[in-house]
Amino acid sequence: MIIQKLLTLTIFGTLCFIFLWTFWSENPKNEKQLVLDVSFPTSDIQQPEPETVKSTTEILKNKSTNDDKEIKNEPEKNPPSISNKLSTVYDINGNPKEYINSRYYANYLNILRQQHHQMLSILLDKADLALKNNSVYSVTLKPQLAPSNDPHDYMSLARYFWPNPEKQNGLPYIGRDGYVNPEIETVKDYSLLRKLFKDIENLGFAYYFTRNDSYVEKAVYRIQEWFVNPETRMNPNLYYASFIKGQELGRKTGVLDMHPIYRMLQSIPIMRSSRKWNLLTERKLKDWISTYYQWLETNSLGRGEKASKNNHGTYYDVQAIYLLSYMDREEEARKYSREALINRVNKGILATGQQPHETRRPTSWFYSIFNLQALFLLAERSQYFGFDGWNYVGPKGQSIKKAVDYLLPFALSNGKGWPFLNIKEFEVNSYVRLLELAYVIWPDDNYLEALIILRPKAKLEQALEYRNADWEDNYLCVWSLMTNKQLWTCVE
Questions:
Q1: Which of 416, 425, 413, 322 is closest to 369 using CA atoms?
Q2: What is the DSSP string of 363-378?
Q3: What per-residue confidence (pLDDT) applies to 487?
Q4: Biased-composition ranges for Basic and acidic residues (predicted)?
Q5: pLDDT of residue 83
Q6: 434, 450 in Cβ contact below 8 A?
Q7: What's the first-to-final CA gap in the chain, in angstroms?
């Protein structure tokens, strides 16, 4: 236990060491100052955009020049030299030994504590809410049944489908891609399923940090309620997911509803050490998962989703890998993760980094980031199984890094020059989270400089709860990635 704690502290120290090297600006006029103080003027967020698309380097250079003109006595924004943070002593043989000087080391300890306690506070708040929530999570609660008339059949309504104005009864509904029909909220199976996965994830991680068995007890209860209890359980299929009113079955795209199951499956192993973990419940859950995965492999809806070229296919792969791994089919998961990563990079990314199957959508910016999140999950799983998917390069030069780089200048310019239809905003919070991870994976200084500009806007989006964004930093996610663990709460 002592060794484990020391290892954890060392990992935290490494993370904050990198953080401080990146963002601490030295102030020789005030040697006593230990507070990290980087100012972000409003012009960084709302600066007038250029008329043409510029490279990331040009945008960052222009940002720096404009800031110099507008802001006086501003701390340097570019990451300072590492050498400024090191001091030197000499051993008995006269050899130099460099170390982080006392000023930066003290600040690193301060930030370490702040970041860790903020993360833990937010996590425990979420877990406590899940613990106290006594509402029922069940597919049997919906006011309208699927065509099967079985209340245990999961059903969600197709997001972008609306009543047909040319039909008196509006049936069957017709598609308007990019425009969400609020009627989807009348069937709660989708939102309850997402809430279930997030609750179990938060309860599991809260147990990891606190060893409070109450969190595990609640997680087991939720698993029983959704997957085991004969009165409230969901049937192990998605026949009526993404259902279009006026049709007889759901659509292949409805398989996407289940993709966040990885949140639950990655938290279960860390709860098994609790005395409140229920082995019988887990055996029944595995039976459910096994039956569901067989349905995915054999039903036309599942097979059709797997064959999809866009984000639907990518998230199918993520879901399948986690399911296989949870069922202890590790070699299949290993093979699947490598083949899926190569396939999605080769067919889903161009040599420029554009994701053509996402940019053809009316909400092209959102879907470009959404699929990139799935690619990050795929790369993490492939790395876990021994294949470096992060640095895989396709036959035409395609790579995940190129997909990150392609979006960067448009994120910096608030979408100016984006050459595709985009009927929604150019939000950056989700992209900034990926950009932070990207720097850990590929230490590109452009990412750091871009983060200094983009992070204030991302935090504003969090504060305004744009797209239900949570107010939190990426601390746990970055730490997890650096220690070769799962991505945990990194992506949606």
A1: 425
A2: BHHHHHHHHHHHHHHH
A3: 57
A4: 60-77
A5: 59
A6: no
A7: 33
CA 63 vs CA 42, 53, 72: distances in Å? 12, 14, 15
Q: 15 is written with which tokens?
A: 């993370």
Handedness of CA 10, 14, 19, 21 (dihedral sign): positive
Ranges of the chain whose pLDDT falls below 70? 1-55, 57-58, 60-83, 485-492
Pairing of strands 174-175, 161-162: antiparallel
| In contact, 310 and 317? CB cutoff 8 Å | no
Q: What is residue 30's three-state secondary structure?
A: coil
Residue 332: φ, ψ to 5°:
-65, -40
DSSP annotation of 422: B
Report how far residue 206's alpha carbon sits from residue 202's, in angstroms, rounded to the nearest whole number.
Answer: 6
Distance CA 473, CA 471 (A): 7
Amino acid 489: pLDDT: 62
- pLDDT at position 233 is 98
Return phi, psi of residue 64, to 5°: -65, -40
Distance between CA 221 and CA 228 in Å, rounded? 10
The answer to whether the Cα torsion of 451, 454, 457, 461 is positive or negative is negative
Q: CA nearest 64: which of 92, 94, 89, 44?
A: 44
Report the candidate in 263, 116, 128, 277 with the shortest Cα–Cα distance to residue 206. 128
Structural domains of the chain sorted by starting position, each given as residue range(s) with its CATH number in brackets: 2-37+53-107 (no CATH), 135-307 (1.50.10.100), 354-492 (1.50.10.100)
Q: What is the pLDDT of residue 473?
A: 83
Q: Is the dihedral of CA 413, 417, 422, 424 positive or negative?
A: positive
Residue 43 pLDDT: 34
Please state, in angstroms and rounded to a whole number, the distance separating the CA atoms of residues 333 and 202.
25
**What would the two tokens of residue 319 be?**
């879901």
Residue 383, C-beta contacts closer than 8 angstroms, at least 6 positions apart: 389, 390, 484
Find where tokens 């209340």 sit. 151
Please report the sign of the dihedral spanned by the C-alpha atoms of residue 9, residue 125, residue 37, residue 455: positive
Predicted confidence at residue 45, as pLDDT, reads 33
